[in-house]
Every structure is written in structure tokens, then in C-alpha cells.
Amino acid sequence: MSKILVVDDEYRIRQIIRKYAEFEGYEVEEAVDGMQAIEICRKKEFDLIIMDVMMPELDGFSACREIRKFRDTPIIMLSARGEEYDKIHGFELGSDDYVVKPFSPKELMMRVGAVIKRTAKSEDAAKNDVFTYKGLEVDFAARTVTVDGNRVEMTPKEYELFFYMVRNKGLALTRESLISEVWGYDFFGDERTLDTHIKLLRKSLGEYSKCIVTLRGVGYRFETV
Amino acid sequence: MSKILVVDDEYRIRQIIRKYAEFEGYEVEEAVDGMQAIEICRKKEFDLIIMDVMMPELDGFSACREIRKFRDTPIIMLSARGEEYDKIHGFELGSDDYVVKPFSPKELMMRVGAVIKRTAKSEDAAKNDVFTYKGLEVDFAARTVTVDGNRVEMTPKEYELFFYMVRNKGLALTRESLISEVWGYDFFGDERTLDTHIKLLRKSLGEYSKCIVTLRGVGYRFETV
DNA sequence: AACTCAGTTGATGATTTTATGAAACGGAGA
DNA sequence: TCTCCGTTTCATAAAATCATCAACTGAGTT
Lengths: 225, 225
Prior knowledge:
5-stranded parallel sheet, 4-stranded antiparallel sheet, 41% helix, 2 domains, alpha/beta, homodimer
């Protein structure tokens, strides 16, 4: 049974969605704002998040962005008709779909079904090992990285290092863990070797180099803004 | 029942196409931009893709190019009137048809029907699955390879190696997997044997030798630019 | 402002990995 | 047995990648 998190400040909306979703057999949890949504997501994993754009405390976009830092849970955004449609795209942060309020619960449920079906299938396959963030695409199976449609060539060490970081996106990775993971626990080489490879990665990634954040005194983190 | 993927950033357009397509008995899925289209295509196979040219995140051409790397799904491109240049460009990238916006849904559906019928037929004819990329033709059933119309003779090992690579086009294949697949898991011979056969393959393939990409420290990958 | 420590960068010779040509091998058929 | 041909091995060449070093930068501290 799939678990859904509904995030909206309006009680009525949450109730409507809950009613329909439970009728469809989903397990539903609620959050009243983005802040709470993030907290809940840290503790628990959902199959889908339905999130309003306009909310007190923390809006849907920011919450989406934050959650995407550590979870790949599909997200359906809800937005009022007035809120520019273009805006949604402008801020498109990997939400899987969006629905304009006022929405027909039936239509929403159809989308929910579609998204869940899609992601459930892909998890089964597990073969389709791909990470995407804006124009950055990392295909673990093909061992390729593309930036805005252009293939980026990388050396073996770059791949290993980068893939490891992307697989652990949003996590602080210590220099030690990076080195022992990519070079092997028995690497006793120069301390600066890691830095050099980080440099090469950044060079390869172009505009996405800022996704590799230096954690002074600790190591690095790959994050999706 | 044929499955169609509709890729357009405008909800209205998607709705219209969905409505008509479902009326015709097709199963429809949607994507809002090129990036999403690629992701969905990785997970699922469609009989046809209808894709807008102008989209945020990743335009239709780039998406088309990307999808063609791992799928041969026919594609119909949509573009606003006046984007004449695109027409040429689109066909070059292997889109199967082209419709100018604003289009008559009826006309679009006729084209959809035509393309699907065409590819369905050719798939029947080529029941004994063949792979083609430009002037390269690999007939798995007939066990033949032709380059620009000229038959290329290959030895058994070459066939096995090449066929395995083509069947897994776009995937990184490790030396180990290649060897155990083609030579058997119990092959204890020289490490360089694989290299030699790759060399022979490349020699046979002429201009298409560049489709066999060396993945340093890993193995090889067969890819269609 | 000077200091210090951590991280960044570019250059380079050493090392690793792959490509290649030639030779050896070995089984099937003449 | 001999020859042919696909296959494998091997030695060497060529290429790509890496580790290392030294100088540099820049943020945080004193």
C-alpha cells in the first residue's frame, strides 16, 4: 500500500484529498506547512507527496527543494490559478506533476495513480539507474554524464568519485570516507589528491560545479540547490 | 493497444492530444518537458512519442537526440509556425513526422495513425529483430552485419561479442561481464584477448568503429552517437 | 593587518591501461 | 600429416590517467 503525504495549510483541502486518497487505498499523512513536511520526510519515506505552493512558514517550492536534497520522492504540486503557470516551470525543481486549484479530486487521483505507477515500476526495474537535476544527467548504468544535453567525458577516478557523491547526494562526505571509498581503504597517498580530483570534477561540470560544496575541515557534499 | 507519450509544457495541449488519442483507443502518458520525457522513456517503452520543440528545461530536439540513444521509438515533433529551420533539424535527428502548431487534432491523429501503422508493419516484417543505425545493420536472426550495404564477414567470436554489445547498446559493459558472457564464466585466458577481438571488430566496422567506446578501467560501450 | 590553516590550482613525470602487430596455438577438414 | 583459419598469447607501442608537489587563494582568527 502506497503512502502519501499531503501538505497544505487549508484543513478543508487536506480533508478532501485524504478522503479520496484513502478511498483509493492509499495511506495518508498530513503536514500543514513546508517546514513540517520536511521534518516528516526526514523521519519517514513516502511514495508520493502532494504539496501546495502557497503556505505559511515555508512555501511549497522551498520545501520541495529541501526535500529533494535527501529524498527522491515524487512530488505533485498544487497551485492556485492566479499563480503564474510559467512561474511553476521557472521554479520547476523536479516536481513530477502539478495540478491547478481548484482541482477535480478525480483528476488529481488519476495523476496520483499515474505517478505512483510510474515510479513503482522503475524501482522494480532498478536497471534504470539515472539521476537528473535540471540539465544535469547522471546515468550510472551507461556510465555517462550529460550537462544540458552535452556529453561530458570523465576519467575513471572522476566517475567513481562523482558517482559516489551523487549516490550520496545531500550528505556530508568526509575526506576520509571519500578517499577510502574511491581509492580504497589502503590508500596512503597524498592528502591533496582528493582536492585535485574535486577540481577536475568541477571543471567538467560547468555550471553545476556549484553542486559540489566544500565543507571546510570536513570534506564535500553534492547538493541540488 | 498502442502507448503514446505526449511531451509538451502546456497543459492545454496535452489535454487536447490526450482526449483525441484516448478516443482513438491509445493509452496516453504525459511529460511536461524534455528532461521528464527522457526519464519516463527510460522506464517504459512507448509506440510513439509526440513532442513539442519549445520547452523549458530541455527542448524537444535535445530530448529526441537523447532518447534515440537508447530507444527507437518513433517521434512526431510539434512546433510553432515559422520555426522552419527546426523542420530540417528535426528530421535530421530522426523524428518521424512533423506537425505545425496550431494543428488540427484530427490531422495530428491521422499522422499518429500513419506512423504507428508504419512502424508496426516494419516491426512485423523485421520479426527477426534487426538493429539499424545509419548505414549499419545488424540482423540478429540472420547473423549478418552490413555496413553501408556491404556485408561484413565476422568470425563466431566476433559475432557473439558484437551482438552482445549491440543488444546492450548504451550500457557500460565491464571487461568481466563481456568475457564471462562471450567466453564463459570459466575463461581463464589472457586479459588481452578481449582487446584483440575489440580491435578486430573495429576494423570490421569501418566508420562505425567509433560506436565502440573504450571505458578506461571498466570495459566498453556500444553507442549510437 | 598579519597569520594560519584548509582548500585550490596547474604542471609534470610516473604509472596504469589499452591498442596493435606478429607469432603461436590447436582443431577440423583435406 | 599438413594446411587453414579462428583464436589466443605475447611483446611493445601508445595513450590516458594519476599522484604528487609547490605555489596560490581565501576565509576565519588573533
